[in-house]
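Q: What residues go here?
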C-alpha cells in the first residue's frame, strides 16, 4: 500500500476546499545551504519534497480536491510561508505545529510561532 500524505492540516484544507470552494496551495520550503558540503543533502531534501508534493497532488486529485503544490528554497521557512500567503492573496494559513519544546524550541525557534506573530491573515494551527 502506498504511503498516505493525508495530514491533519491537509484534511482541514480539503474540507475547506470542498465546503467553501477554497483554493489550496501546499508549500514545502527547502533550507538554503551556502556551502558545497551540504549540496548532496540539499539534493536529497529536494527530491523527498518533490515526492511528498506529488503524493499530495495525486491523493487530492483522486479525492476530487483541487490542490496546487509549490516547492521553494528559502533561508527562512516562516518568511517563505508569509511571502507565499501575501503573493497569492491567501485568506487563511493552515499549518502544523510539531511542538518543539525545551532547548530545541528555544534554539531552533518555532516556524509556527513566527508565522503566528507576523501573519496578516488568520492562521489555523493543527497539532
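A:
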Amino acid at each position: 500500500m502506498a504511503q498516505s500524505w493525508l495530514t491533519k492540516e491537509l484534511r482541514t484544507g480539503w474540507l475547506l476546499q470542498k465546503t467553501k470552494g477554497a483554493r489550496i496551495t501546499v508549500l514545502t520550503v527547502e533550507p538554503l545551504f551556502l556551502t558545497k558540503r551540504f549540496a548532496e543533502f540539499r539534493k536529497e531534501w529536494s527530491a523527498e519534497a518533490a515526492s511528498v508534493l506529488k503524493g499530495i497532488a495525486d491523493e487530492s486529485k483522486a479525492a476530487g480536491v483541487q490542490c496546487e503544490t509549490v516547492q521553494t528554497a528559502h533561508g527562512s521557512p516562516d518568511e517563505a510561508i508569509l511571502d507565499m500567503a501575501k503573493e497569492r492573496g491567501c485568506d487563511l494559513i493552515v499549518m502544523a505545529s510539531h511542538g518543539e519544546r525545551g532547548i530545541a524550541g528555544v534554539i531552533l525557534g518555532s516556524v509556527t510561532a513566527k508565522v503566528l506573530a507576523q501573519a496578516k491573515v488568520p492562521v489555523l494551527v493543527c497539532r
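A: Context that may help when evaluating the design: The first helix runs from residue 8 to 20. The chain has a mean pLDDT of 84.
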